Amino acid sequence: MAVTPMMRQYYEIKSGCEDAILFFRLGDFYEMFYDDAYKASRILGLTLTSRGKDENGEKIPMCGIPYHAANNYIPKLLAQNIKIAICEQTEDPSQAKGLTRREVVKILTPGTVLEDNLLQSQENNYLMAISNDTLKNNFGLAYCDISTGEFFVTEINDPAKLVDEIEKINPKEILTATNLDIRLVQGFFTTVYNPLPYKEARDRFLKFYNIHSAEAVGLEDFHISFSALAAILNYLEKTKKITGFLNKPKRIDNQDYLYMNAVTLKNLEVLSALNPQNKSGSLIWVLDMTRTSMGARLLRKWCAKPLYNRELIQQRLDAVDFFHTNFGVLAELDSLLGEIYDLERLNVKIANQIANPRDLISIKNSLNKLPALYQILKEIPSNLKNLLLFPEEWLKATHDMSVEIEKIILDEPPVLLNNGGIVKSSYSEELDKLREDVKNSKQWFIDLEIRLKKETNIKSLKVNYNKVFGYYIEVTTTNLPQVPDYFIRKQTISTGERFYTQELKEKENFILHADEIIIKKEIEIFTALLADLKKYTDALQIIADKISVLDCLTSLAKVARANNYKKPVLNDNGLFKLQNSRHPVLEKKPDSYQFVANDAFFDTQTSNFVILTGPNMAGKSTYMRQIALIIIMAQIGSFVPAQEANISLTDKLFARIGASDNLFEGKSTFMMEMLESSGILHNATKDSFIILDEIGRGTSTFDGLSIAASIAKYIYKQIQAKTMFATHYHEITSLTEQYPLMKNMNIAVVEEQNKIRFTYKVIPGKAEKSYGIHVADLAGLPKEIIRDATKILEELEKEEISLHKNKTGKIKQLSLF
C-alpha cells in the first residue's frame, strides 16, 4: 500500500528527532504516531486511535491533543524525562500549493525549558555537560540555566568528587561524552554526545561569544572543559534555544567556597528536609524571606556554596548589619522588592524574543521601582555600594525601556498575542483607523443603503447580511429595471434578486477579516517593540544581579531581627567560640519553647577535638548539627542563633550522621559509613570541621570500637581538624588521657526513681552510662522486655563484663593507646 504524502512528510521529520516524541501539527491538533502514540497515550491518559494504513496495510496507531492545550500535557512528559519535538505548520494551509510545509520549530527537554509553567520559580533548571580525559581521569564540568542566562564551568580530578558535584548541582539533564563511564551519572537523565577535539571545541566556543582568546574569560588552563562547553552550545542550537541570552561562563574555583559534599548537605538538611514530603525543616526554609524569585534562587546557591573568603563574608555581614540596624530602610526596601518581578528570567525572555505582553508589563512595573530603590541605596555606607548599587546612568536606560513599553502596551493585556487587545490607541494611526472602521461598520452599511437608494431611486432597496451569503443588496422584482450596471448579480429569490458591488465586497472582506488584520498589525507592532527592547538586556541583567543580592541580604536581616540572631565575629587565629547557641531550624518548631541553648569552644592550643557522649534522644545530633549550620550561616554572611559567636573560617565541612545504604550497588549500611568516612579522612585539612556520629556501630563491638578509636586518633594526629565525635563506645573517652587537645563532653541526664529526664545541656566530662533501656522504655517496648533487659544488665554489671581479660583471667579494661 502506498504511503500518503502527509505520512511521508511525517517519516522524514521524525527521522531527525528519533529520541523525542514528535508533536506533529495537523490543523488544531498535535498528533503522535506509532511508538510515540503508545508512549504518550499511556502517560497522558489519551485514547489510542488509528489513522490510515502503512505500506504493509497495518493500521497506524495515533493519538492527539488540542494544540492550544499543549502546555497542560508537556509538563507530564518532561517529568518522565521525555523529550518533545514541536513540529508546526510553517505556511498558511489555505495558501499552500499541495502539502502544507511543516518543520520542527523547537525541542523541549528537561534541561532546556524556558516556559514559565515548566520551571520552578525558586530553583534553577540546570543543563549540564561532562567531558573527560581518559588518560588522566580528569573531568570538565559545564552547566547552565538558559532561563536565567547563568553559565558555570569547573574541572575536577577525581571521579568521586565528580559524582558529588553532580549530586549537589542536581541538573535536570546531563550531556555525557561517549567515553564517559555512564555509572558516574546513574540516576540522572542523560543524552550522549560526541566530544569535539580541544581546538575545534575551543574555536566553537570563542566564535559563539565573539572573543579571540580563552584568557578573556579566564579559561586558558581549562582544556578539558571546552568539549563540555561546546556540547552545551551545540545542544542548545539543536533544540532551537541558542539564539538568546547566555552569559559567558563563570569559572568556579572550589577553593573560594566552603566545601561540603552532597552527604553533608543532605545530613544537615541545608536545602531540603530529610523527609521530602515536608516543605519545612531545612535551613533554607528558615533563611528565605526573599521577596523575589531571583533572590530566592541566589540564596539557595549561597547556602549550597558558602564563601571561604573573609573579605567577601565580612562585606555581606556588614550589609546585613546595616539593614538590621536601620529598620526604616529595611522596611522601605522590603516594600519595593515585593513589587519587583523576576527580572532575571524576564530579561532572558526578551533576549530570546519569547516574552508575552504581560511579561512586558511586569518588566515595566518593576523598572518603575528602580528610581526609588536607587535613592535609598545611595545613602548606604560607601563600603557596601559596589555590592548593591548599579550605576546611576543605567536609570535612564531602564526609564527609556519603561517608557517604550508604557507608550505601546495596554496596562492589562492578555497573555497570548493572537487574542488581540495589546496595543494602546493613539500609538498607530493605521491600527486606530482599522479599529475605528470596525467600530463604525454598522453605520457604514446604513449609510450605504441610504446612498444607494438615492443613486438608484429604488426606495425599497435594502442592504442585508446572512451567514450563508454574507452581505448583499436586495431589490424586488418590480424594481429590477432600475438596477445600475455596476450591481453584480449574486442570487435569485422568489421576491426579487440579490446583488453586490465591488465596494460592498471589499467592505465585507474587511469586516470578515478585520479581527485577523488588527491582530496581525498588533503582533507586528509588538514584535518590533520586542526586538527594540533587546538592546537593554545587558544592563538589565546586571541590575537583576544587584537586586538579587539585595534581596538575599535584606532577607537575612529580616530573619536576624525575627529570630534574635547575632552578628558573628571572624578571626584568623583558629578560635571557634559560641555562647548560648541554638539550632536555627528546631527552634522554629511550634513546640520549641523548651529549646536549651549550648556553648561550643574549639581552638588550636587547648581543645580541637570533642568526644561527645550521652544517651539517645538526649540531643547529641541536634547539638552537632546546630554547630555545623551556624558555620554555614556565618560563611554565607548571615547572623547566627547565638548570644555570641567568634568564628575562624572553615575550608571544608563534613557531617557523617545517621545510617544509610545503597543496596542497588551492593553497599551495606556499614560499607556506606566506611566509604563516607574514607572520603572525609582523605579530603579534610587542619582548617576543616568534622562531625562524626556513632562511627563503627554497623559491625561487631570489637571491630566497631577499634575502627572508631583509630579514626579518632588519625584525625587528631594527622589532620588536626576541629572535630566533634559522638559515640556510645564509652571506652573511647579514655583517649583524652593521652591526647591533651581532646576533651570529653556529654549531654547531662537527670535520673530520678529509675526514670530519666533529658536536660539537653552539654557539659564537660563523659557520660557514665548510655541509658539505653530507659530510652527503650520511653519508646514503649513491652514491659516484659524492659524488665528482662534490666535483669540481664544487672547480671552483666555484677560480673564486670569487659572487652578484654588478661592471661590470669582477671578483668582488664581494653586500652586504646
Draw up the topology in text.
Elements: H1 5-14, E1 20-26, E2 29-33, H2 34-44, E3 49-53, E4 59-66, H3 70-79, E5 83-89, E6 102-108, E7 127-133, E8 138-145, E9 150-156, H4 159-169, E10 173-177, E11 190-193, H5 198-209, H6 225-238, E12 250-251, E13 259-260, H7 262-267, H8 283-287, H9 293-304, H10 310-325, H11 327-337, H12 343-351, H13 357-367, H14 370-377, H15 382-388, H16 394-408, H17 429-439, H18 441-456, E14 462-466, E15 470-476, E16 488-493, E17 496-500, H19 502-533, H20 537-563, E18 569-571, E19 576-581, E20 598-602, E21 609-613, H21 620-636, E22 644-648, E23 652-656, H22 669-683, E24 689-693, H23 701-719, E25 722-726, E26 742-752, E27 755-764, H24 772-778, H25 783-799
Helix pairs in contact: 5-6, 9-20, 10-20, 11-20, 12-13, 12-20, 13-16, 16-19, 17-19, 24-25
Concise structural overview:
By secondary structure, this protein is of the alpha/beta class. It is built from 25 helices and 27 strands. The strands form 5 sheets. The chain has a 7-stranded mixed β-sheet, sandwiched between helices. It has a 6-stranded mixed β-sheet with strand order 3-4-2-1-5-6, with helices on both faces. Strands 11-10-7-8-9-12 form a 6-stranded mixed β-sheet.
Keywords:
single chain, alpha/beta, 25 helices, 27 strands
